[in-house]
Amino acid sequence: MQSAPSVLRAQNLPSASVRRSAASRHPERPSTAFDVLITADHEEADPVHSPSDSLGHELARPGLSWSGTVDYGPGPLHAPTSVAELRLLVGRSRRIRALGTRHSFSEIAASDADLVTLAHLPADLEVDIAARTVRVAAGVRYGELALAAAEHGLALANMGSLPHISVGGASATGTHGSGDGKRSLSSSVRAVDLVTAGGDLLSLSRDEDPEIFDGAVLALGALGIVTHLTLDLMPAAPMRQTVHLDFPSESMTSEGLLTMLAGGTSVSLFHHWDGRIDQAWVKQVVGRDGELPEQWLGGRRSRRPVHPLPGLPADFCTDQTGEPGPAHERLPHFRLEFTPSNGEEIQSEYFVAREDLAAALAAVMPLGERIRPLLHASEIRTVAADELWLSPAYRRDSACVHFTWKQLPEQVTALLPEIEERLAPFAPRPHWGKVFTLDPEQVRVQFPRLADFLTLRERLDPGRVFTNAYVDRLLGE
């Protein structure tokens, strides 16, 4: 029987708090119980053997992303069923990366080495009503977490457009929703438990480890395998959602755009690079935000549900009637019980200073005739500044210039450098989980705390167990 690595005592991290894991209190299961066969959702996986699996168990290839555009590598994909098994797996791995719900469009989770899914770990979810917090397993989806919080009269501070994404994956990549006062989803995290190199278990919290915590949440999977996160919650309040259509070109001024984006707690604007806004999705807190009139800033209230991508049915979308409902049924664009589309798309997104939004859009607008044939739709969102070291919204209230592309990777990749060149005067920061072609040095200079993050990585993973080509290229080896 193989014993578990010890719980990390955080010898190089002065104030790191340590929670002893169940693995240190109970006998280990034999290592032969570690791995189960995992098949990708959309294809039959070919059996392979792990270079690190001395027992030669049959495992599976990781397969493709939700969009079908990212090959996660040869694998194998491991599926431990407990934190103790995960620690044993990491402890014997030369290199390993975590794979979440496969919704990223970049190669952030791809690897030529082993991968691990947390989908078979217990879906722990512990709500502390008095503290207004929840401790949740990293593989739990945001929609499921929001439902559990609502049962206690509590809610998440923010949600992304898709409730199907996992808490761990979204926090690691800087996923966000929209709203002038809404920070990224990672900003609600107040504690993390992660398995570090060697199989050690480390707990870090905002209160106990303030000097490093902001580098440990949005960490691109480069510090370890996160098993649990503790998030802040807030009292639940009903929300409503309405959609207005067909805004005049005059709304594309800085004042017009910022006024629209301030129209609710969360606002998303959809357009097609033709000089006007097609749709404004406005999500408001009932009793706090003023209800919008039928005609608003030149746009008209939609009398039927709409999908943000032209031609698709709105069946999968959240309620747009203006009727009050729980926040988790209004903040996302899509309903948890439905798959929003077939995934045949590619996404890119760039954060700029909010006050630069109109100028950034105007700079890219001349490319509209070349963008539109490749585009499903573009979305404009806002994100409030935060303190997370690798956050695209680090210390900058941001507007996000987003592209949902058709699945034409070669054409999209060819056009992106021209878009990025036009955005360059506005110091764009890319979304880590989406496609971009910026030179790594251009990326690094946009993150003032990158050196601190690299120091933290050197402490926790000096052997680069958790790296991959994506991390090496963008952050440096």
Quick gist of this model?
The chain has helices at 83-91, 142-150, 167-173, 213-216, 254-261, 357-364, 368-371, 409-423, 440-444, 450-460, 469-475, and strands at residues 47-49, 58-60, 77-78, 96-99, 114-117, 125-128, 133-137, 154-155, 189-195, 201-205, 225-232, 234-235, 239-245, 266-271, 277-285, 295-296, 299-301, 345-353, 375-383, 398-406, 429-430. By secondary structure, the chain is of the alpha+beta class.
Supply database-style keywords.
22% strand, 11 helices, disordered N terminus, 9-stranded antiparallel β-sheet, 21 strands, alpha+beta, globular, 5-stranded antiparallel β-sheet, 477 residues, Alpha-Beta Plaits
Uncertain regions: pLDDT < 50 for 5+ in a row?
1-58
User: What would the principal axes of the Cα set say about the shape?
Assistant: globular
Number of strands: 21
End-to-end separation: 35 Å
Helix-and-strand structural type: alpha+beta
Report mean pLDDT, rounded to a whole number.
Answer: 88
Strand content: 15-25%
Count every helix, treating DSSP H or I runs of 4 or more residues as helices.
11
Radius of gyration: 22 Å
Q: Can you give the helix content as a percent range? A: 10-25%
The CATH topology of the domain at 239-444 turns out to be Alpha-Beta Plaits
Query: The biggest beta sheet, please?
Result: 9 strands, antiparallel
Strand order of the largest sheet: 16-17-13-15-14-19-20-18-21
| CATH-derived architecture of the domain at 239-444 | 2-Layer Sandwich
What is the name of the CATH class of the domain at 239-444?
Alpha Beta
